[in-house]
Amino acid sequence: MRNSGEIGIIGLAAMGQNLALNFARKGFRVCVYNRTSERTEAFMRDRVRGEPIVPAYTLEEFARCLERPRRILLMVQAGPAADQVIEALLPFLEPGDLVMDGGNSHYADTERRMQALAARGVHFLGIGISGGEKGALLGPSIMPGGSPEAYAMVEGMLTRIAARSEEGPCCAYMGRGGAGHYVKMVHNAIEYAFMQGIAEVYDFMKTALGMSSETIAEVFERWNEGTLNAFLTELAARVLRYRDPETGGPLVERILDKAEQKGTGRWAAQSALELGVPTPTLTAAVIARTLSHFKGDRERIGAAFPWPDRRAGFPPETLADLEAALNLVVLVSFSQGLWLLHEASRAYDYGVDRAEVLRVWRAGCIIRARWLGFLREVIREDPEDPHLLFNARFRGEVQGRLPAAGRILDLAFEAGIPMPALSTAVDYVLSMRRSRLPANLIQAQRDAFGAHTYERIDRPGVFHTEWEGETHPPGVG
Ligand code: NBP
Q1: In-domain check, residue 296
Q2: Does 458 map to a domain?
Q3: Rounded to an integer, what distance in angstroms lies between the CA atom of residue 261 and that of residue 271?
Q4: Nearby residues of 452 by Cβ (< 8 Å), 6 or more positions away
Q5: Which residues contact 88 (CB under 8 A, 6 or more apart)?
Q6: Residues 207, 238: one domain?
Q7: Is the pTM of this model over 0.85?
Q8: Residue 13 Cα, ligand 1 centroid: separation in angstroms?
Q9: Residue 1 resides in a domain
Q10: pLDDT tens digit string along 425-472?
Q11: Is 184 labeled as catalytic in the residue annotation?
Q12: What is the CA radius of gyration of the chain?
């Protein structure tokens, strides 16, 4: 297949293999390369069954295998590995070729790589890909960012392998520079928050209501029929039903309660803090994973910190309240993520169309949810407003669920159940609807101890006051 490969894939771990098969099964001629040749051999032997896939065992051979301009998709570990592959590949590239990074790279790395390759006349796209291994094979959600010219070189191919919803292929141009990876990062942050919300209501049902995994699975299945219809709701039910072949009991109850993360949720929280956008629920989900790691400390403190057992006497509407609470977490998480995306797009000049983002998330990706159609309508009503909460229909959905969320938080406190996603979601709404917050007292104190100045509500200007009494913390001696 010398010079005839329409697309080249570097990196043949789970994602690269499945994307190669997906492209090939859609009729594209694919060349593949992996640093360790045994992996390439195993892929060709175990998985390729007549699809138009040609292996290359050196980068030179790989570059020769592709038609010009070359279109190359990197599916290697994010971070230094992506830089190393690009560095090694460069001698074999020509101006006009296109390199795409489909890994979970940091958006700032993507911008840096894009500029470095542009200096050599090579195009670069940062592509967020969601859907996990199965999605890669059967149709992922694809979020490409970079120059429109570069995107035009692969639009036809990417939209062919993407998942499809009733609104078309789940692949669209996300914007300039690192927009694709930024959007994927926000996707993952929402995914963290959605999963945290699910984990919290599961904990409530198990710990406070004493329900079995089987019964909780039934509840998630029922919720999946309604507004909470979503990949993650469905998956929660499936996972809860799975029985451990060794013990016969639910496997989930045998799994160590330490949640891992690969960094995208943390990057989103860091970016939000840098841009000054409050995303408390997205951040709380990252922190909850971090906190879960301190298992030994939790056990030690818990043993010395008993909580009264208040399992009896829950009102009959508790399950309906819980469903409303999880809906609230989902809605608020999306609104925080979409605000972040709005501000990032402005700050970095991405030109992101958030309605298109929501369309691309409608199938093939981990945060696929029924709410996305509604959210897209809301955004389209006023695309320039950063806040979904300013939209009457969105506000109605949130407002109607707040009392239930409040009741759940009361009961959770009594039962000693932490609900960081739910409590931050409620706090966020309460804070965003308050025209006056107690930040005035914070400003007064800052001015009193550090002469940091303040503004007034009754006239313009910047003020400082010589506050009376001791305004410095006393020293020793
Ligand atoms: P991994 O993230 O586990 O990466 C393994 C691949 O990277 C192998 O092909 C490995 O080659 C290659 N690699 C490494 Br590690 N260091 C390299 C280097 N210095 N030079 C060349 N190749 C190197 O694979 P994955 O789980 O398939 O994910 C691929 C990318 O897609 C990642 O960025 C990931 O974050 C992203 N992603 C993954 C998922 C998912 O569900 N897994 C979903 C969406 C996005 P070797 O065989 O020689 O070691």
Answers
A1: yes
A2: yes
A3: 17
A4: 443, 446
A5: 59
A6: yes
A7: yes
A8: 6
A9: no
A10: 999 999 999 999 999 999 999 999 999 999 999 999 999 999 998 777
A11: yes
A12: 25
